[in-house]
Amino acid sequence: MVSPIFAALDFPDLASAVSIATAVRGEVGGFKVGLELIWNEGPGAVEAVGALGRPVFVDAKLHDIPNTVFGAARAIGKLGPRFVTVHASGGTDVVEAAVAGLAETSPEAGVLAVTVLTSLSQHDYSSAGFRGTISEGVGALVQVATAGGAEGVVCAVSDVATVKMAAPEMLAVTPGIRMADDVGGDQERIETPSGAVTAGADILVVGRPITQSPDPARAARMMADSIRNDL
C-alpha cells in the first residue's frame, strides 16, 4: 500500500470525485465511496473510481435483516470493491450475511463492521439509549464483528486499543482524521494521522482535509509525510 490513507470521495457528482481521485491517487492507498456519491450517480461510481487503480472501500453501511444484507453485499461485490461496510449493531447474523454475500461475487473483498460513529460524543451515545461507555460498546461490537467473520472494524482512533485488545488480527479503520490545525467539523472524536498510526490504526479515512483543500494532492502528501516524520 502506498499510504494507509484512504481519501473519502464524498461528492454529489462523479466528475468531481474522479477529478480529485485522479489528483491524489499517487499519494493515497485507496478511496472511500459513500452514500452521497452512490445515491447521486449510481453503483457505477464504484467501478469508475476503481478504474483509477486503487482499492475502493464502499461505505454502504448495510443494516437490515440478514437476507436483505446478503443480497445487497452480493450485488456490491460485482462492482469490484476491496471493502464493504455493515453495521455491527445489526448482530452476528447480519455480519455473517454480508460476508457470505460478498464472497459469492468478490471473494477477495472483506467486510468492515461499523462500531460507533466518530460523530457521536459520549453524551450523544447515552442520549440515544445506549448504556455504559462508548469503549464498552465498541468492545461488544468487536465481538460481533469477529463472530460474523468481518475482516475489520470502523472505529474512532480512541477505540483502536479496545479493538486490538479484543481482536488483534482485526483491521482498525479510522475516520475522523485531522491535522493538528484542522477544524473538526461534525466529527467529535478526532486524531492526527501520526496519532492514529501510533495508536494502531491500519487504515485512515480522510475526507474534507484532503478533498476540500485548494491543493488536494499536497494535502494528502503532507498527511503521509506527517506519519513518516512523527513515527
Structure in words:
By secondary structure, this protein is of the alpha/beta class. The chain has a single domain, classed as TIM Barrel (Alpha-Beta Barrel). Helices cover 45% and strands 16% of the residues. The protein has an 8-stranded parallel barrel with strand order 1-2-3-4-5-6-7-8, surrounded by 8 helices. The longest helix has 15 residues, at 134-148. 48% of the residues are buried. The model has no long low-confidence stretch (mean pLDDT 93).
Describe, in short, the structure shown.
With 231 residues, the protein is of the alpha/beta class.
CATH fold title: TIM Barrel
Kindly report how far apart the N and C termini lie: 17 Å
CATH architecture: Alpha-Beta Barrel
- State the helicity in percent bands: 40-55%
Structural class: alpha/beta
